[in-house]
Specification:
The complex is a heterodimer of chains A (174) and B (184). Chain A is α/β, with parallel strands linked by helices. Chain A has helices at residues 10-21, 37-43, 55-67, 79-82, 85-95, 117-129, 143-157, 167-171; strands at 25-28, 48-51, 72-77, 99-105, 134-135, 160-166. Classes of the chains: A alpha/beta (174), B alpha/beta (184). Chain A: Its EC number is 4.1.1.79.
């Protein structure tokens, strides 16, 4: 018997999607769900990674990177969407600047912290209102393909897009 | 020194060194456009607070080009984390000029904290930036601009705007023209 094909952890699958999409510039604001993914990105020689202090700052840095020819993404918690709305609208949407936002979606099924719930519930509604396309994991869909598809959409539409990865997605970890 | 005096000095430097320029939202952008409109200028029309961040991302993406961002004290106060992130990255090709006139100049010159107690050069140093310069005359600014392409200059100025006209370009036009130069 040969070994079974290796099953990727959720973080590994997301990382594979980032690489498949050709993302080469990443800013991050931490989340417990991103604790495996951020070091993978940080070690990847083909990706320029910088931690930032707040998501809105990250939106600006990613816009500048795109204006210099990079393919930018932001690793963040969904709470950071609230910190970014003006920049997403008056920078990315105004100037047609693509951005991939890979969001740990807190405040949904399995959330232990009550303060995460309001933004957790508001996040899809805010994205709808802002006309930001978002993608969520589906059974039978490879998370890596989801990430690549989201970035391709950002490029085609020249706008920010989000990938919402909720608590049950990360639970499959290890 | 007024903001327009600082902008005149920066425009001369940018022209001479072919640097990519990010201009802060509001009247600063109009003044830059009026003094020296070149395709390598990017004019912010919204997203107050992010000129320094856009400049940092651009400088990291294009280490082969010089990048200058012109920001204001009010905008830096709105995104003070930028000074820490710039310090951690410290790109050799990035110069941030903060024209500190102690006022929100585009909205009626309401005073900012720098007109009362806050020292942005000290904040920049405290955030870990090594190359921080303070100037208060056009001559001092010209000298520092001659000697460095990197770091943070806090140019102390008095409040006051010129009546530079509105920028007629569309956002699409501004970024398309800019990226034809920045991505070359």
């Amino acid at each position: 018997m040969t070994g079974l094909p290796k099953v990727l952890t959720p973080s590994e699958a997301v990382f594979k999607g980032i690489k498949d999409a050709g993302i080469d510039f990443i800013v991050s604001v931490p989340c417990a769900n991103l604790k495996e993914l951020i070091p993978m990105v940080d070690k990847a020689p083909e990706i320029l990674h910088l931690p930032v202090t707040r998501e809105e700052e990250g939106v600006g840095i990613c816009a500048g990177a795109y204006m210099g020819g990079k393919k930018p993404a932001m690793l963040m918690q969904n709470s950071g969407l609230g910190n970014s709305i003006n920049a997403l609208a008056s920078l990315n949407q105004l100037y047609d600047i693509p951005l991939l936002m890979i969001m740990s979606h807190r405040g949904v099924e399995g959330e232990p912290i009550v303060a995460q719930v309001p933004m957790g519930e508001l996040t899809p509604k805010l994205l709808d209102t802002m006309e930001i396309p978002y993608f969520m994991p589906e059974s039978g869909v490879d998370p890596a393909d989801l990430i690549a598809k989201a970035w391709n959409t950002a490029v085609e539409m020249k706008k920010p897009v989000a990938v919402l990865l909720p608590i049950p997605f990360w639970r499959k970890q290890a | 020194m007024k903001r327009i005096d600082a902008i005149n000095e920066i425009a001369a430097k940018v022209k001479e060194s072919s640097a990519l320029l990010i201009g802060n939202i509001g009247i600063p952008c109009k003044e830059i456009h009026h003094v020296c409109d070149v395709p390598t200028n990017f004019y912010m029309l919204g997203s107050m607070g992010l000129a320094s961040s856009i400049g940092l991302g651009l400088a990291l993406a294009r280490p082969d080009k010089k990048v200058v961002a012109i920001d204001g004290d009010g905008s830096i106060l709105m995104n003070m984390g930028t000074l820490a992130t710039i310090a951690t990255q410290s790109p050799e090709n990035y110069l941030l000029v903060i024209v500190d006139n102690g006022a929100y100049g585009s909205t009626g010159n309401q005073p900012t904290a720098t007109s009362i107690v806050t020292d942005l050069a000290a904040v920049a140093r405290g955030a870990g930036n090594k190359d921080v310069f303070e100037v208060s005359t056009p001559e001092e600014l010209r000298d520092v601009l001659k000697s460095t392409d990197k770091g943070i200059i806090v140019a102390k100025a008095e409040p006051g705007n010129t009546d530079a006209p509105v920028i007629e370009m569309t956002p699409e036009g501004i970024i398309k023209r800019f990226m034809e130069k920045s991505v070359l």
